[in-house]
Specification:
The complex is a heterodimer of chains A (318) and B (168). Chain A is of the alpha/beta class and 318 residues long. Chain A is built from eleven helices and nine strands. Classes of the chains: A alpha/beta (318), B alpha/beta (168). The interface between A and B is medium-sized, with 21 and 22 residues.
C-alpha cells in the first residue's frame, strides 16, 4: 500500500503517516506550511476551533515524558474538535510488562483514529505505523535521536514567516547536534526546501561523524560559523541524553558555544534566533538574546500549534 | 454572451450591483467565498462604495465532505477584518448549487461572532439545492447540465468571465 516503499506515503503519494521529514517531497512540506498558514488565522479568532476532526479519537502515546510537545498536540487536536486521550505509558502498562505492539493493539480496539507517538527508541513510531490497521494514522512526536518532524516543520514555518524565500538564506544550527532529533529534522526540512547554505556549529564531540554527508558545512568556531547568517537555530544541550564525557562543563560550553549578544552581532543585523525549548539559559543561550528583539522563540510555540493542526488534518483527510 | 452561450460575467455583476445598491447601509459587511466569490466581493465593495473592509472565507475547514475528499491542496486563510457582532453581512459566491458551501460558510461566520443578519448574493444560481438555502441577490438563473461545471475565471487585467467545463 505504500508508494516507493516510503512508509509515510499512500499509493497516491499522499501523506498517510508523518514519521520523518527525510524522504518527503518539497510539495508535501509546502502543503503543510501553507495549510498551517490558514490555521494561524483560526487560532487568532474568538472561537479558536474548527469542526474538521469532530468525532475522531486521537491518542497521545508518550512512552517518554514531555509536557510541552504533548500539550501542543493536545491543543492542536482540540482546536480541530477531535477527542484527545493522553497516555503516559512509562508509568502504566510498560511497567507491567506489556509490549508496545500489545499496547497499540488494545488502543486500536478502542477505535483510535490517530496515534501521536513519543518514544526514547529511534524507530518506535515506524514499528507502530507498520502494525496499525490501514485507516489509522501515526505522527512521530520525537523518537530517540532520530527525528522530530513537527518540530522541524514549525521551525521552517517560522523561518518562512520572517524570511520569505528559502533559496536566499544562510542558516546555522548551533550546539548538540549529535543527540538532537530536532537538528536532523531541521536539516532535512531546510535542504528539501532549497536553503543553499546550511551550517552546523559545535564541538567535535557533539557533532555526528560524517554530518557533512547531509549537505551541511561544519564549523567548530562560533565566530566563523555565525558570520553573515540570516537564521540562527539554537539546540538544547541534551543533559538527560548525555552519558559519558562529551563536555568539560556547562560553563565551558557557554563560553565557546553559548549565544550571546556579542556573538549574535556577527550574524546579519536582521538575523532571527530560534530555539526549540525548553531553554537552558546561561548554557546554550544568554537571556539577553533569548528575550531580545531578534528572538522568535515564543512565536515558534504559537506556530507549533498551527503546524500540528495542519499535519493532523492533512493526514486525517488522506 | 460568450462563445459557450453563457451570459457575460461583467453584465451579471452589474445586475447584482444594481440589486444590492439600495440595500447597503453603514452596517453592511461583504464577505466573499474563495476564490470566485472573493473576486466578486472586491468588485462589489468598490462599486458600492462600502466603508467596512471586505472579508474573505475559505470554508475548507467546515466542509461536510472532508471525510470523503480530505483537505484540498491549497487552503487560503479566511480573513474578516471587521467585527462580525451586530453586522448585516452579505455572503458572496460565484455559483450557487447544492447550498453546502453556504452552510459551511455560515457555520464558519458564527465562529467569528453573532451577525445581526446574513444575506446571500450569487452571480449564477444553477439550482440543484440539497439544503433549504436561497439567495436574495442573483445575477442570473441558469440551467446547466449536471455533467458540466460552471466556473468564474479572472483574466490578468481583472476582467471576469464564466466558463463551462466537464465535471472532473
Amino acid at each position: 500500500m505504500f508508494l516507493n516503499n516510503n512508509p509515510q506515503l499512500n499509493k497516491n503519494g499522499e501523506l498517510h503517516h508523518l514519521l520523518s521529514i527525510e524522504g518527503l517531497p518539497a510539495d508535501i512540506l509546502r502543503q503543510i506550511l501553507d495549510t498551517a498558514e490558514s490555521f494561524v488565522g483560526v487560532t487568532q479568532r474568538e472561537v479558536k476551533k474548527v469542526p474538521l476532526l469532530r468525532g475522531q479519537a486521537i491518542f497521545n502515546l508518550f512512552f517518554e515524558p514531555s509536557t510541552r510537545t504533548r500539550t501542543t498536540f493536545e491543543i492542536a487536536a482540540k482546536r480541530l474538535s477531535a477527542d484527545v486521550i493522553n497516555l503516559a505509558i512509562n508509568v502504566s502498562s510498560q511497567s507491567k510488562g506489556e509490549s508496545v505492539l500489545d499496547t497499540v493493539a488494545n488502543l486500536s480496539a478502542m477505535q483510535a483514529d490517530m496515534f501521536i507517538v513519543r518514544h526514547a527508541q529511534s524507530g518506535a513510531p515506524y514499528l507502530i505505523a507498520r502494525h496499525v490497521s490501514p485507516d489509522i494514522h501515526v505522527i512521530n512526536a520525537g523518537d530517540g535521536r532520530h527525528a522530530h518532524p513537527t518540530q522541524g516543520l514549525l521551525d521552517v514555518f517560522t523561518v518562512r514567516r520572517y524570511k520569505k524565500d528559502f533559496t536566499q538564506l544562510r542558516v546555522a544550527i548551533v550546539g548538540d547536534v549529535l543527540h538532537s532529533r530536532v537538528a536532523r529534522s531541521q536539516i532535512h526540512a531546510l535542504t528539501t526546501l532549497g536553503v543553499p547554505e546550511l551550517r552546523v556549529i559545535g564541538p567535535k564531540t557533539l557533532l555526528p561523524s560524517h554530518v557533512e554527508d547531509l549537505g551541511v558545512h561544519v564549523y567548530h568556531d562560533m565566530a566563523k560559523g555565525l558570520k553573515d547568517v540570516d537564521v540562527v537555530m539554537m539546540l538544547r544541550l541534551q543533559n538527560e541524553r548525555m552519558q559519558g564525557a562529551f563536555l568539560p562543563s556547562p560553563q565551558e560550553f557557554f563560553k565557546s558555544y553559548g549565544l550571546t549578544a556579542e556573538k549574535l552581532a556577527l550574524a546579519k543585523p536582521d538575523a532571527i534566533v530560534l530555539h526549540p525549548g525548553p531553554m537552558n539559559r546561561g548554557v546554550e543561550i544568554d537571556s539577553s538574546v533569548a528575550d531580545g528583539k531578534q528572538s522568535v522563540i515564543l512565536p515558534q510555540v504559537t506556530f507549533g500549534i498551527a503546524i500540528r493542526m495542519a499535519v493532523m488534518s492533512i493526514l486525517a483527510g488522506n | 454572451m460568450t462563445e459557450q452561450g453563457l451570459p457575460s460575467a461583467e453584465t451579471l455583476l452589474a445586475t447584482l450591483t444594481a440589486q444590492m445598491r439600495a440595500q447597503v447601509t453603514p452596517q453592511t459587511g461583504l464577505i466573499g467565498i474563495v476564490t470566485g466569490g472573493a473576486w466578486l466581493a472586491e468588485r462589489l465593495h468598490k462599486a458600492l462604495g462600502i466603508a467596512v473592509p471586505v472579508g474573505t472565507l475559505d470554508v475548507s475547514f467546515y466542509r461536510d465532505d472532508f471525510r470523503d475528499r480530505g483537505l484540498k491542496r491549497k487552503v487560503a486563510p479566511s480573513t474578516i477584518p471587521f467585527e462580525v457582532d451586530g453586522r448585516d453581512l452579505i455572503l458572496i459566491d460565484d455559483v450557487l448549487n447544492t447550498g453546502r458551501t453556504i452552510r459551511a460558510a455560515m457555520n464558519e461566520l458564527f465562529d467569528y461572532g453573532r451577525p445581526a443578519s446574513i444575506r446571500l448574493a450569487a452571480l449564477v444560481d444553477r439550482g440543484g439545492r440539497e439544503l433549504p438555502i436561497a439567495a436574495q441577490f442573483i445575477g442570473a438563473t441558469l440551467d446547466i447540465p449536471s455533467a458540466q461545471s460552471i466556473d468564474l475565471e479572472q483574466a490578468d487585467g481583472g476582467g471576469l468571465r464564466l466558463v463551462l467545463q466537464p465535471v472532473k
